[in-house]
């Protein structure tokens, strides 16, 4: 089977400081990869390099496109990359505000990607928006409300709906539960797990919260100072950590 | 019976006649001469020259008179006039190092070669209305000192000798010309400075002030502020050398700003720059602060979301002639657009009422 | 102003050549906004400086100029611009749509069908149709080059979801020749279908320094949804002066009691119809 994403020797520097370096991995269709580490470990830099938001200084990010097969997205033209990011890719930001249009209704937010790829039937767009509100457990009666009237948890669920409506093949998530109350986090995680399983999504999730990867990720990479210090199956890494730093991470969670 | 309104032409003529009368005011009061405006309202003249981008005190005085003292209107008259003038060529870059300074101060050094020269400044006046001026404005002559023979060096040169301030790269390349090419983004520094130099004093001041209040603060010191006259020289191809074609009065401000060091360089001060026609120091200092704020990218700083860092925001809105024209155009008729909105609102209301009636009938 | 001191049609020949180059480029790439070095004109920005510069670069001494604002020849700004060209270019002027070779307009397209011998010059306040969705020029330019026009439909979607109909009544966005989304200037959407015409259409935005164009017989499609198609609407009346049922109407308040009447916004059209009857 061809990997959906092949990451090879990605490096990003900020002057003399290392953002991330020497990162390589494969992601297969239907697989969820978790990237954990404390803040400053380079996990968000890595995610932004993978998703095309930052240009890496070295390395390749090869995506298995629908029409041309595996293509390096780092060297691909901007129009092509933008096309990818509104069709086959999705990006869920930590802060829903960064991923939503706050002055556009919930329905418009969900419908935007459909319209961007050429859907020109209002009724159909609205039906899809309603369907997705239901899937992320938002009352359909709120379809014409703006996200500014929503709670933090609802905004995050709306952002997820907006991203998934076009059936992307790869979802990038940056701390999707960060900044939410614990009870709200649990519900969101539950929802995400359901969606990932039902849609067979491939995803890369960056988080500092081990509970998130425990629930969602098949595989895990642990980052420290811009490098991957340990990787493997999620349960294996969490239950039997080999690297000292991972042991520290896991034990600090257990103490909580 | 309604007859479509005619007579716009007559109305305009009458309005113009009335305007001329109002401009003149009470005819029992002596009329202002251009020389009076040029000599006694010289800071207004300076501002009109600076933002009008035309160095001609007499024309600026005429514009102020014609505009009834409305300086933006006067700037507008000057801009509209200058755009029709043929362009013979470009002067050499003026050498502000050779400026004959009327005023030269530094906030960074207590003293420096050339000294601190206050010049004709409001700075240390008490802002008390001087009722004597209401009666008569005769003043005794100010004391005179012997003029300085040698040129006054720039303060930043002293910092530069120690490598303490970032050098600005010299270039022989002709900068893009804002008055001859459309403003396109991203704009380079030369273009930004051009735009700021003729930008609205109030707008640039507000932007500069916002950086001081924490919206992209850049810790500015007035390294030097100098006002005086410089020679303008032009290369004459037929002669093969440059000749002096005149003198202009300029205000120049260089700010010294801190920064933390970049990828490749040890910590150094950086600078902001302002250069304006005439004695216009508020504008020159403001310009230097905004120039510095706009340089965040080249200096490897973060974009903090501040308006003064946003090149498109600053440059697109600093021109008061563009701004006032567009603002005032909403006085023009918009019947047609309004009519279409009117029809739409009526239609939507009708449909809404029908829906409500329908629902009530069903209940 | 001493008329002799200025070149034909005010602008110097070099400037006119620069504007003509921009116009030619605009015609070659229909709907694309060509940056040009807009000059200060003796009228304020926002009052038609773009249209005036395009007209100045287009006019020849043999031309016959018509200037309208809100469809009418006699509105103050139309009078002022017409006088400007009478003084600086000395060209003949007319109020008759059919007799004009160059027509400068603000906010309307004349009712009478234009021919291939005519040029229609629009005054444009904001040339960027995406401006109010995305304020940044650098971003909107990218959106145009990549044809990322989804956001435009989000706006229309919002209209329908909030009001039950597309609530853009003027400056209704169009797609030109299947490529660029373009702002037709603030003409009422009633005029949009007329944009597929035989005459050359030039758009000048002075303050924003842009010129764009629609060549003759070019496809101009008003954006819409399949199930909410574009509608060119007008007041549901006939003209109280000439009886026209097919023209765009202005509503005029007649008295303190709010009495109203509806009259053609295109004064020449109305006048011509009344003459024909008399």
UniProtKB/TrEMBL annotation, chain A:
InterPro entries xref list: AAA+_ATPase, ABC_transporter-like_ATP-bd, ABC_transporter-like_CS, P-loop_NTPase, PhnK
GO biological process terms on file: organic phosphonate catabolic process
One annotated GO molecular function: ATP binding
SUPFAM superfamilies (alphabetical): P-loop containing nucleoside triphosphate hydrolases (SSF52540)
Domain ABC transporter: 5-250
SMART domains xrefs: AAA (SM00382)
Keyword annotations: ATP-binding, Nucleotide-binding
NCBIfam families: CP_lyasePhnK
Protein name: Putative phosphonate transport system ATP-binding protein
UniProtKB/TrEMBL annotation, chain B:
Family annotation (Pfam families): PhnI (PF05861)
GO biological process: organic phosphonate metabolic process
Domain of life: Bacteria
Name of the protein described by the UniProt record: Alpha-D-ribose 1-methylphosphonate 5-triphosphate synthase subunit PhnI
Record lineage: Bacteria, Pseudomonadati, Pseudomonadota, Alphaproteobacteria, Rhodobacterales
From TrEMBL, chain C:
Gene Ontology MF term list: 4 iron, 4 sulfur cluster binding; alpha-D-ribose 1-methylphosphonate 5-phosphate C-P-lyase activity; metal ion binding
InterPro entries the record matches: PhnJ
Catalytic reaction annotation: alpha-D-ribose 1-methylphosphonate 5-phosphate + AH2 + S-adenosyl-L-methionine = alpha-D-ribose 1,2-cyclic phosphate 5-phosphate + methane + 5'-deoxyadenosine + L-methionine + A + H(+)
GO biological process, any: organic phosphonate catabolic process
UniProt enzyme class: lyase
Domain of life: Bacteria
Keywords from the named record: 4Fe-4S, Iron, Iron-sulfur, Lyase, Metal-binding, S-adenosyl-L-methionine
EC number(s) given by UniProt: 4.7.1.1
Protein role: Catalyzes the breakage of the C-P bond in alpha-D-ribose 1-methylphosphonate 5-phosphate (PRPn) forming alpha-D-ribose.
Family statement: Belongs to the PhnJ family.
Record protein name field: Alpha-D-ribose 1-methylphosphonate 5-phosphate C-P lyase
Organism: Ruegeria marina
Lineage per the UniProt record: Bacteria, Pseudomonadati, Pseudomonadota, Alphaproteobacteria, Rhodobacterales
């Amino acid at each position: 089977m061809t990997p959906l994403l092949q990451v090879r020797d990605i490096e990003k520097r900020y002057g003399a400081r290392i953002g991330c370096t020497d990162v390589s991995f494969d992601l297969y269709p239907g697989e969820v990869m978790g990237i954990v580490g404390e803040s400053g470990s380079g996990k968000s830099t890595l995610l932004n390099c993978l998703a095309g938001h930052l240009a890496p200084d070295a390395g390749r990010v090869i995506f298995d496109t629908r029409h041309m097969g595996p293509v390096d997205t780092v060297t691909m033209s901007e129009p092509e990359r933008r096309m990818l990011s509104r069709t086959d890719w999705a990006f869920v930001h930590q802060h829903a505000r960064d991923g939503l249009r706050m002055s556009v209704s919930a329905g418009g937010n969900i419908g935007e990607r459909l319209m961007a790829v050429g859907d020109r039937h209002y009724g159909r767009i609205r039906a899809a928006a309603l369907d997705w509100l239901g899937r992320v457990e938002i009352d359909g009666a709120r379809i014409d409300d703006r996200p500014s009237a929503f709670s933090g948890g609802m905004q995050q669920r709306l952002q997820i709906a907006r991203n998934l409506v076009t059936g992307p093949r790869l979802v990038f998530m940056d701390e999707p539960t960060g900044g939410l109350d614990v009870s709200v986090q649990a519900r969101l995680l539950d929802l995400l797990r359901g969606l990932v399983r039902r849609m067979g999504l491939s995803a890369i999730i960056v988080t500092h919260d081990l509970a998130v990867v425990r629930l969602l990720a098949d595989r895990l990479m642990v980052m420290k100072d811009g490098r991957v210090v340990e990787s493997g199956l999620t349960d294996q890494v969490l239950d039997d950590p080999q690297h000292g730093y991972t042991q520290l991470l896991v034990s600090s969670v257990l103490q909580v | 019976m309604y007859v479509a309104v005619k007579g716009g032409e007559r109305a305009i003529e009458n309005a113009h006649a009335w305007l001329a009368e109002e401009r003149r005011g009470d005819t029992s009061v002596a009329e202002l001469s251009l020389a009076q405006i040029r000599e006694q309202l010289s800071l207004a003249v300076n501002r009109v020259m600076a933002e009008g981008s035309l160095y001609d005190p007499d024309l600026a005085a005429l514009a102020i008179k014609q505009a009834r003292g409305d300086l933006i209107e006067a700037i507008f008259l000057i801009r509209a006039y200058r755009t029709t003038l043929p362009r013979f060529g470009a002067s050499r870059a003026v050498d502000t190092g050779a400026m004959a300074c009327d005023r030269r101060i530094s906030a960074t050094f207590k003293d420096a070669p050339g000294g601190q020269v206050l010049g004709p400044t409001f700075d240390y006046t008490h802002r008390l209305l001087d009722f004597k001026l209401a009666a008569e404005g005769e003043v005794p002559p100010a004391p005179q000192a012997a003029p300085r023979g040698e040129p006054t060096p720039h303060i930043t040169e002293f910092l530069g000798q120690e490598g303490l301030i970032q050098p600005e790269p010299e270039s022989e390349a002709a900068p893009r010309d804002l008055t001859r090419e459309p403003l396109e983004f991203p704009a380079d520094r030369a273009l930004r400075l051009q735009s700021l130099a003729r930008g609205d004093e109030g707008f640039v001041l507000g932007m500069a002030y916002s950086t001081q209040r924490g919206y992209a603060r850049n810790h500015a010191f007035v390294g030097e502020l100098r006002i005086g006259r410089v020679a303008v020289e032009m290369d004459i191809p037929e002669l093969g050398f440059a000749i002096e074609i005149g003198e202009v009065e300029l205000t120049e401000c260089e700010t010294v700003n801190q920064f933390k060091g970049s990828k490749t360089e040890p910590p150094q001060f950086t600078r902001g720059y302002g250069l304006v026609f005439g004695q216009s120091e508020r504008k020159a200092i403001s310009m230097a602060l905004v120039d510095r704020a706009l340089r965040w990218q080249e200096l490897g700083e973060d974009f903090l979301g501040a308006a003064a860092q946003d090149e498109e925001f600053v440059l697109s809105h600093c021109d008061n002639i563009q701004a006032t024209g567009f603002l005032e155009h909403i006085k023009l008729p918009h019947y047609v657009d309004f009519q279409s909105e009117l029809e739409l609102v009526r239609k939507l209301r009708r449909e809404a009422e029908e829906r409500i009636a329908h629902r009530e009938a069903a209940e | 102003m001493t008329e002799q001191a200025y070149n034909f049609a005010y602008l110097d020949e070099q400037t006119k050549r620069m504007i003509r180059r921009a116009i030619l480029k605009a015609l070659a790439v229909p709907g694309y906004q060509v940056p040009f070095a807009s000059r200060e004109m003796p009228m304020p920005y926002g009052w038609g400086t773009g249209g005036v510069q395009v007209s100045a670069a287009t006019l020849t001494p043999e031309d016959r100029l018509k200037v309208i604002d809100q469809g009418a020849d006699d509105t103050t700004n139309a009078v002022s611009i017409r006088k400007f060209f009478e003084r600086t270019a000395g060209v003949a002027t007319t109020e008759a749509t059919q007799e004009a070779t160059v027509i400068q307009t603000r906010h309307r397209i004349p009712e009478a069908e234009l021919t291939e011998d005519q040029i229609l010059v629009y005054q444009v306040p904001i040339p960027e149709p995406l401006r109010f969705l995305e304020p940044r020029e650098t971003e909107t330019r990218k959106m145009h080059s990549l044809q990322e026009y989804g956001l435009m439909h989000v706006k229309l979607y919002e209209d329908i979801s909030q009001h039950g109909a597309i609530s853009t009544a003027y400056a209704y966005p169009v797609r030109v020749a299947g490529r660029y989304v373009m702002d037709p200037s603030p003409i009422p959407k009633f005029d949009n279908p007329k944009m597929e015409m035989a005459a050359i259409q030039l758009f000048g935005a002075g303050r924003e320094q842009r010129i764009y164009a629609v060549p003759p017989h070019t496809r101009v499609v008003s954006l819409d949804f399949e199930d909410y198609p574009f509608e060119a609407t007008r007041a549901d009346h006939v003209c109280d002066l000439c009886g026209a049922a097919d023209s765009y109407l202005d509503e005029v308040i007649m008295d303190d009691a709010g009495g109203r009447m509806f009259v053609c916004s295109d004064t020449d059209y109305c006048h011509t119809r009344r003459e024909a009857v008399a």
